[in-house]
Amino acid sequence: MTMIVQNYVESLIGKYPYWNRTLGADHFFVTCHDVGVRAFEGLQMVIKNSIRVVCSPSYDVGYIPHKDVALPQVLQPFALPSGGNDIENRTILGFWAGHRNSKIRVILARVWENDTELAISNNRISRAIGELVYQKQFYRTKFCICPGGSQVNSARIADSIHYGCIPVILSNYYDLPFNDILDWQKFSVILKESDVYQLKSILKSIPHEKFSELHKHLVEVQKHFEWHSPPAPYDAFHMVMYELWLRHHVIKY
User: Fold this and answer.
1) 149 in helix, strand or coil?
2) Structure pTM?
3) Beta strands in 22-85 (DSSP E)
4) Is the pLDDT of residue 124 over 80?
5) What share of the chain is helix, strand, coil (3-state, %, to 5)?
6) What is the spatial distance between Cα 95 and Cα 242, in angstroms, rounded to a whole number?
């Protein structure tokens, strides 16, 4: 893949004058999968100069915060309508179900999978036990745990926002999507991976008034984490365009 991308970029450089005028600094490219991140690892001039719009904003793969853009990983269409203004139905303290494909997920499952107040599953919820059981669990939960997987990002964050469940970011060094525009402290709980051992006490210490405030702001930002064709006002497309506009000062002619 690296060779394919390299050949493509070199063809752009040879065919058009635009890349050469800024060495690619006024170009951006989008990749929302860890294989896409790896495809560019051997192209240092692209990583250094161009704006990368990526779902995996990991510093260990060369992500540069003032230059690059963190993209939310959104799996659409959503299976069920958005949640909101329904806090009285949210009786489960915390929820996570998924594959143990990272150290933090292994620890999360080992420490909390037998807890009576946290619904932590060691594996994905099978469709065999019922239709849309995984998605419906978001509606009944106050806080949805979002640990990093093979990369720091997770589609679970956008799922949580859509279904009205406060995302609990459990990841180190994660440049959160649109954090130049949105104040994540107002609609999420941001923790370090080392906080996993105190997860239950941290969530239970959040007063009901604070939870209600987080939920209110969460509903307000839902529109920013949805894609539409054609784009709708304030949706994810316009958020990305605004993020790119904010970076125009980085480009030097």
Assistant:
1) coil
2) 0.90
3) 28-31, 51-54, 69-70
4) no
5) 45, 15, 40
6) 33
